[in-house]
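The passage that follows is intended for readers who have already worked through the single-chain material. We present the inputs for a multi-component assembly, then the predicted structure in tokenized form, and finally a short commentary. You are encouraged to pause after the input and sketch how you expect the pieces to fit together before reading on.
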Amino acid sequence: MTLPGQAFDNGVNQKQSSWGGKLVDSEDSANSLMEPPSEIPRSPDLLAEVLYTPDSELRRPFLMLRSMFADLIRSRELAWRLFVRDFSGQFRESILGYLWLLLPPLVSMGVWVFLHSTKVFAFGDSTLPYPVFVLTGLVLWEAFVSAMVTPLTVVGGAASMLAKVNFPREALLMSAFAQAAFQTMVRLVLLAGVLFYYGVFPGSGVFLVPAGLLSLMLLGFVVGILLLPLAMLYGDVGRAIQVITPIWFFLTPAVYPPPTSWPASILTWANPVSPLLITCRQWLTGSEVTHLGAYIAITAGTMACLMAGWVSYRIAMPHIIARLST
Amino acid sequence: MSDVLVEVNRVSKRFCRNLKQSLWYGLQDIAGALCGLASGGPDLRAGEFWAVNNVSFELRRGECFGLIGANGAGKSTLLKMLNGLIKPDAGSIRIRGRVGALIELGAGFHPLLSGRENIYVNAAILGMSKRETDRRLDEIIAFADIGDAIDAPVKSYSSGMRVRLGFAVAAHLEPDILLIDEVLAVGDLAFRMKCYRVIAELRRAGTALILVSHSEQLVKATCDSGVVLCAGRSIFVGEISAALAQYRKANIPQSGNVGSTASFPFKRRREAFDGPRIVDVQWRDPAGHPLASLISGKPASLAVTLQAPIRCKDLALFVGIRSVDSPELMSAAFLTKDSLGELVLDSLTTEVQLIWDACCLTHGTYDLKLRLEHPPFEVLDILDWGEAQFDVSPDPIAASQVGLVHQPHHWEILSLNATDKLEFMTGHAVAAHRE
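Having made your guess, compare it with the prediction:
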């Protein structure tokens, strides 16, 4: 067995000489002892240093912000890898495969169109053909819901990994958002086909659609990550979301036109999803924009909460892991 | 000193056994941290205990450090804090350099993806870039050595194959500090040897190692120094053999009190008495004095006292011995029916003696199993693994205590027919010459 000091020398030389290469065998490292090192040995002082203390990260906000963005950059590749993993693993055990991305909105559109045409539900009339109206509503609503729920399922599903491996935690959120965004994009293609079929064209508002979608999805995402710490500890959150989401759907003017008369009109301003969904649909279908002020206010609020959600996620994570693994 | 890579300074962590309470405290901690408060404090809340209590040590480049302790002593918690997964509640940990962890092999494997695809996932989680992984892919696949299965979904893998693949990826990290939990115990022997070789190579490369293992042999062979944890407290920090001695001292009598394992002489508590029973087991020296532990190469006998309420015949007694370090393999086994023939109990108490001219076991701790049976199928009484353990100390004359067995021996050198004057010859040449 080598002496600790000797191992130290070998290590420095070897890490220099076989930079990126595989571990060299003992003969090589013995040789490298004889030769003077060609480069300056890597000094331990140059190694990245981390300090773990009980103190809250919030005590040093600038350091925290710096490491947050550093981790965000560091986690891009992992986020992409996790996204690819989940996406390509998703439908391997199914016959219909990727069709499952399109089927749910198509089927529910069929149901709503049937209910509407048989006058089971009497909604106020919209200027748009009802199939176009209902499909845009459903796709946008689903975009919101999946942006809200995917972070919860992705982070929840990675619990054992979180408890055992130290990787940038932002990667999970990024991959969750990417999953939700991808699903929405696939559905937009379907929606474009339906719009074209019914001769509805968005006009210049189409350029604002990405912004509208982003606001809507970020709102869902923020709700999701703000709930995350609580949801990781208590199963109640997940169950409550299952109960609340369908109710919320009916309180959002997705399949019916926004009510204009009191008291039903409360839905268009007390429900933060409504202005975003309404505005985004108006941009998509080239209709007149009616709720722009509320849209801007909610988007601004979302951005502020996004930052808060990110910070709380980071700060809560070690405490969550401690409780997961006891 | 500038080459200190890990500096653990009076670190503590508290946990709570009650689930509901634990979650509630977790929520409180999160709320506190979000208000900028430090977690922890000097006091425990109701229902809490110190999982790690005031532990300090330092680790330099190229050193290997063992975390030693019984189950639940706080080793894994300490490892998690070192890995930055959880925060200490008191004290601080300073880490310099890239940390690799062999705690969970195959993290993030998706069961439906192929082994090859999962290599990329696992490598990304461990912090390897795509480029790095691309470059090492062939090496990793060769190291895992699972053949065509590499393109089959991981779902179809055996647990050993999963571990192989996971370790193959982890082995290609180049950490400055490597944390190893007992992941290497799985996998077959050839694979374990491969793992130890990788660890040795990493050490040669200057990686500092922190090892958690229950195998005293592994810890002793690998580590320079270690900390002994007992209920979260560090009871000893320092040189490894001294640490192991402390660990044994702290744990063996304690576990005897609990009643799970006991040292010798061993007496069984027996309430019901409805058939033949093993009541007493004892090691003795040739003079008949009881022995607390054996010495390699010295004579010893195992005296087993049996009680029978009625006369019993056609019985057999089985004695098995295995090392606590490698429980998968029995070191020795003895059956009365092999050399003694049938065993007859015709008095209330009978003593059966297993006599060894020399103890062939090497230095270590061993587990004993006794089975009293009525062949072929009826088992009358069992003293199972873990109920009684004994130590074997090294033969003071034989200095090198390596190998699986202690074979009593002596050397002789004979000169055969030395008429011709011989040049230096190899063994083969001598043999050829004699023919």
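Commentary: Chain A has two domains: 4-46, 58-324. Residues 65 and 301 of chain A are 20 Å apart (CA to CA). How closely did your sketch match?
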